[in-house]
């Protein structure tokens, strides 16, 4: 009972955060399209938001550490994101929408690693199960996707920023309930980052992992827009996205066995193969049965890639550099590479529509080649 009470604040926080993600990721490009932005402009906005996130995350983390008020910073960032969600509804033209988008995107995305640090501190101190806490986020993501998908059929895309706003308010309310995280006992010893930059295995992994994550750029930015243009109803789009998240959850549920059998390298290889099949299909057809068949591959393209990356970092990064290795990977894969691919996908989609997904297939193929050639399984710790 005591452990349950300790877990509830984290479950509530993850539910609020991933409810917002479930609304934002699939349908924010639909809202931007509704506001009259071209695919190239949407790709530019999403790319700039991703790069802004890369800059905002370390700044927010440093501010939280300096102030010693991580929960307050989380609530403040969520409030800034809510202001962006309000302002974008009255913004007109590319540049005003861009300003609102950057405020919303960077502030909201900076909330996630701060909340993760709160959670991991509690897991280490109180023996909580991270997977069970994170599960509430996955369930809320599905609720957000399905809920907004069904609602759009009756209310239209103007509902999207309102729904995102309500989810941000839920984060503001959930943040103060989180227990405080203690500062590390000794922050004086810092291993040199140059040790990572000289590590060829790490650099090869970084290139492969960045390609695998960035291969999702066209999917995140344009799948809902592309399918809507092909006549697929928003509720069906929502179910297709939900199918991918369910596949991810199932992969994580058997993650220990998958790591034991395949190792991090095998998981990265599986993600590359899955990406070749998934993204080629998305480029070739908008048939709902075909899309439903390959959406299960999200368990490989994202789930196996993420699981493989986390275990590679845990087993390979030198003592004293684990956090740095994780931070560099997050910045390169989810920030720099994702932003570049989103921008490129926007240009390609503007010119050739669903052909942009072939760019994703090529990126998965590059990851597969790099992993085969240069990445080895690290030894278990």
CATH architecture of the largest domain: Up-down Bundle
Into which percentage range does the β-strand content fall? under 5%
**Low-confidence runs (pLDDT<50, min 5 residues)?**
184-188
Cα(first) to Cα(last) distance is: 33 Å
Give me the number of helical elements: 15
- Please count the beta strands (DSSP E, at least 2 residues each): 0
Helix percent reads: over 70%
Pfam families: MFS_1_like
GO molecular function: lactose binding; lactose:proton symporter activity
InterPro entries: HcaT-like (IPR026032), MFS_assoc_dom (IPR024989), MFS_trans_sf (IPR036259)
Transmembrane segments: 7-28, 72-88, 94-114, 135-153, 159-181, 202-222, 238-260, 267-290, 296-314, 326-349, 355-375
Summarize the structure in words.
It is found in: Cell inner membrane. The chain is an all-alpha fold. The protein folds into two domains: 1-179, MFS general substrate transporter like domains (Growth Hormone, Chain: A), CATH 1.20.1250; 194-381, MFS general substrate transporter like domains (Growth Hormone, Chain: A, Up-down Bundle). The protein is built from 15 helices and no strands. α2 packs antiparallel against α3 (70-87), α3 runs antiparallel to α4 (94-126) and α11 packs antiparallel against α15 (356-374). The two termini are 33 Å apart. Residues 184-188 have low confidence and may be disordered.
């Amino acid at each position: 009972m005591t452990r349950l009470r300790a877990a509830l604040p984290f479950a509530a926080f993850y539910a609020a955060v991933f409810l917002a993600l479930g609304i934002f990721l699939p349908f924010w490009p639909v809202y931007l399209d509704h506001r009259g932005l071209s695919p190239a402009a949407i790709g530019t906005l999403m790319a700039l938001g991703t790069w802004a996130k890369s800059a905002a995350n370390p700044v927010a983390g440093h501010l939280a550490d300096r102030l010693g008020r991580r929960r307050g910073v989380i609530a403040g960032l969520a409030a800034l994101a809510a202001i962006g969600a309000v302002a974008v509804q009255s913004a007109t033209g590319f540049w005003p929408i861009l300003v609102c988008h950057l405020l919303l995107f960077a502030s909201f995305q900076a909330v996630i690693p701060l909340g993760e640090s709160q959670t991991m501190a509690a897991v280490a101190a109180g023996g909580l199960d991270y997977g069970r806490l994170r599960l509430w986020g996955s369930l809320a993501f599905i609720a957000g996707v399905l809920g907004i998908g069904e609602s759009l059929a009756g209310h239209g895309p103007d509902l999207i920023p309102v729904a995102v706003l309500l989810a941000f308010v839920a984060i503001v309310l959930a943040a103060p309930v989180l227990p405080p995280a203690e500062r590390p006992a000794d922050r004086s010893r810092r291993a040199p980052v140059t040790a990572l930059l000289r590590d060829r295995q790490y650099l090869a992994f970084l290139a492969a992992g960045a390609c695998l994550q960035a291969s999702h750029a066209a999917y995140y930015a344009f799948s809902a827009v592309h399918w809507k243009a092909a006549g697929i109803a928003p509720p069906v789009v929502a179910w297709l996205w939900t199918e991918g998240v369910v596949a991810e959850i199932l992969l994580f549920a058997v993650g220990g066995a998958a790591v034991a059998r395949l190792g991090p390298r095998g998981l990265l290889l599986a993600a590359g193969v899955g990406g070749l099949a998934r993204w080629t299909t998305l480029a070739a057809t908008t048939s709902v049965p075909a899309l439903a068949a390959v959406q299960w591959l999200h368990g490989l393209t994202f789930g196996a890639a993420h699981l493989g990356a986390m275990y590679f970092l845990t087993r390979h990064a030198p003592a004293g550099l684990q956090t740095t290795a994780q931070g560099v990977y997050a910045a390169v894969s989810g920030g720099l590479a994702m932003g570049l691919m989103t921008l490129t996908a926007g240009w390609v989609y503007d010119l050739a529509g669903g052909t942009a997904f072939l760019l994703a297939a090529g990126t998965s193929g590059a990851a597969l080649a790099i992993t085969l050639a240069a990445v080895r399984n690290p030894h278990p710790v």
